[in-house]
């Protein structure tokens, strides 16, 4: 059946072996679902041919970058073809004079920035997975990262796209200009569409000059509420840190337990970074420091020495490994891991997340991009225990209900995929119909990443197979 | 398939969230391009085998044994998962269930029969002196594949007045746990007895794998000797020669990532090479040469391709000389080097010996 597909990409870029299918059945989410075949196209024409064939035969196609997504976006829930786009990894051109570059979807974020650095420029979105994640995946999920507080998300840097639509047509969307007011901004429709509307085969991205210098600071707070108020005040007073992060008490304790860091075990630590020229940085850092002091931060460390800065960031970088090792019988599962609320509601959200965790007998650690109102959570459970999953499910539902009551959103930067779809559908109930009409118009046979986003099942737990061997 | 070894590492498999950060700089993934070549795939397969979600196949065997066990994945892992322990446990379970690559089994048989991984006739060692500070252990790759390099290093040690002796060494067996096989205990006993007979207080190794084995493997823990790598010794000695050549250094995985020895080799080199340059990937992010983990024996082409990639990094820096301190890296780089490539490849100790003899300045 797949001989035609094999002919399109060549035998070395085709696999239907069980081992390959098993490996491509999961991403960084909680799911696994076997595809029938994996294809690694090398150019736009091959992508077009594959989609024409899939559309004709009504075979599901799941586009995939590095598979770093945490919500099941790259899990082939209906089987079919996994389209691994990492071979399409050319930086086609860098036009500094036009403040843009053109790249293929498989270019890795950090690889692009390495090239741009030679010209003194950069592509600002900095997801934690930047060393491996691809530009195509970042666009499909509208990824951002800790510097979004100043620079914005991937969406803000996509000027134009070339996209292969589900029936195989190639379309150019957007422009190669910094601004445009020329009709529907369809390139933006593709950003965050999670591979459901088309396959991105080229992106024109806006560039920014690299800042001359950076400085970082760390402020300690006895009270989470006061940290929350300080964060809100920093942004409300027009200050523009290039990162504004926080860690909660459980995370701090985990870091101390795992790495003997000797951090004070208080309710919150706020980390901030400013970039620009020396004068502007000194001024901004001083102002942020004063805001933190105003809200009773009892200790603030600031540095622009590279080694010192690295040490200050260590605490933030240690959050993930430390929480993974918090308790021997628990592991982190990716659930409700990037909810986002208006910045002023952040401390209320965190306090109530801890209440929800306690009421459901599980542990939830919180840390993340405070300046964007985004928190990353670590749900710690025994992932092989069905009872613990029941508790986690209840906590997730309550966490999302709380987020929505605070006028927040289901996902700040990781996307919806399968895991968050039930809550996304509640949040966006008024626009679901429009989304489905757009999907139907572009993909009448529903072949592209089917049953994701607004079409994903209503119970994330039974949506497809979980990757854990769960025992009763 | 029975998975009694994997069972011990279940927590690691559950802590792995499959984020794929391990793909960055993975030398095998860089060559093959399929995700199945990276560490995440091996974590997925390991959990699949443990939970009996999948059965072993030739293709699964291949995925596990294509890994050079270089450890770059562990450096990248944000959750600090003990990936190599999981890979080694999987390999052990596979071998114990009868799934292995014939060259690895032949290697074990060779060690039993001849005392070295190549199954070659034992070479007599020159006993330098009866009573010495250091007992020198050279290892299989040096003795049987890089003899010239070994001879130069020995000449250097003599010239520098190091008090050392050699003994009737057999393969240390360090490679076998990486391949899923048991070490041959008779050789371990033999080595321990021979080392004790020398009366030396310290064991000096050139090969980093041997260093790691004597230092860390429980079967050698009762040896009661300080284990010293040659770079640690050379760094304390007075080196008076100089070279004007552009020199770069490759961190062997067993010396760097696995033993934490990054600075001593650099400090030595900087003493004699003012034009020292770092390759783009260095220290804990140094790219693997491709020789480790049994890959050279079972996937020779892949192994050489990895070495070519690393060699290219040295050439990009316009280095005249690529130095390392590992016979396996040395051997693989020499095999990967094209005739037209004008770069010299030596162990540090070997190159120093040449300089002290008045050559290559």
From TrEMBL, chain A:
Belongs to the FAD-binding oxidoreductase/transferase type 4 family. This is 2-hydroxy-acid oxidase. It comes from Candidatus Infernicultor aquiphilus. Transmembrane segments: none annotated. Residues 31-210 form the FAD-binding PCMH-type domain. One of its GO terms (molecular function) is oxidoreductase activity. It comes from the Bacteria. InterPro entries: FAD-bd_oxidored_4_C, FAD-bd_PCMH, FAD-bd_PCMH-like_sf, FAD-bd_PCMH_sub2, FAD-linked_Oxase-like_C, FAD-linked_OxidoTrans_Type4, Oxid_FAD_bind_N, Vanillyl_alc_oxidase_C-sub2. Keywords: FAD, Flavoprotein, Oxidoreductase. It holds the Pfam family FAD-oxidase_C. The keyword Cell cycle does not apply. Its cofactor is FAD.
From TrEMBL, chain B:
SUPFAM superfamilies: alpha-helical ferredoxin (SSF46548). One of its GO terms (cellular component) is plasma membrane. Keywords: 4Fe-4S, Iron, Iron-sulfur, Metal-binding, Oxidoreductase. It comes from the Bacteria. Residues 7-37, 57-89 form the 4Fe-4S ferredoxin-type domain. The keyword Oxidoreductase applies. This is Fe-S oxidoreductase. It comes from Candidatus Infernicultor aquiphilus.
